[in-house]
Amino acid sequence: MKVVAVFLAVVVAAGCSSSDESQDAAASATSVAAESTVVITVPPTTSEATTTTTVPPTTTAATTTTKTQLTTTTTSGGPYVVGTPELYPLTPLRESDGAGGSGCAPGAGPLPDGVWFGNVGAIGAASVDFDLACFYFGDIAYTEGAEDGEEVNNDYYIRDLNPALRTVRVAMGATVYELDPGSVGFLTVPFPDWPVDPAGYIACPSNWCGVWLFVNGGQVTEILEQYLP
Question: Could you give the count of Cα atoms lying within 13 Å of 78 in the half-sphere of its Cβ?
């Protein structure tokens, strides 16, 4: 009986020992699994890839260049248009040296694009003979008149030192704004029909037919008669 008891004790002890070892092995496996899980969640490489995709700013540089080119094209002169005709003389444009419109010193040869004052001495089918002159208005009129020894009245002074005529081509479809003494305004007249009244407020053509020529592309596109009090 003692032998049997001893044998049973050994079996029980062995079973307990085996159970403890199984538990230790299971615990060890669990810790290893936990460690392996931590290792798997570590790599943060995807955040670096997202950062690099948002970096390139090349499109903003291209937009800036386009705006600069558009600004450059809008600074060129012309087109020169009457818009709403007014009785007052035209204000001086850039580099006119104080005279109205584009001034009175374009140099020899055809009139360049701009707005020019003078007298129309003759009217052709598609051209006018034009005597260029300087038109000063306001305070500068008195200064310029005094330089020439002339008395100035009504705030304007016209200087015509060169009576030579230029033949200036008139564009097809050109418009003339003819003074209408009946309404103290303007008649809108196609160039072939101008003047409606040759003996109107100003006689055109003549040495006193004071007008502004609006020249675009080397041709007159509009003509504005100038009112003088």
Answer: 13
Of 140, 126, 148, 152, nearest in space to 218 by CA: 126
* Residues counted in the chain: 229
Instruction: Indicate the SS3 state at residue 54.
Output: coil
Q: What is the pLDDT of residues 91-146, one digit of tens each?
A: 999 889 999 999 999 988 899 999 999 999 999 999 999 999 999 999 999 999 99
d(Cα 176, Cα 203) in Å, to the nearest integer? 14
Is the alpha carbon torsion for 152, 187, 91, 208 positive or negative?
negative
Find out whether 219 and 126 touch, Cβ atoms under 8 Å: no
Kindly list the distances between the CA atom of residue 99 and the CA atoms of 9, 33, 109, 140, in Å, as whole numbers in the listed order. Answer: 130, 95, 20, 8
Phi, psi of 172 (to 5 degrees): -65, 135
Please tell me the distance from the alpha carbon of residue 9 to that of residue 54, in angstroms, as a whole number.
73
* DSSP bridge pairs for 185: 180
Q: Which helix (H) or strand (E) holds 12?
A: helix 2-40
| pTM exceeding the 0.85 threshold for the entire prediction | no
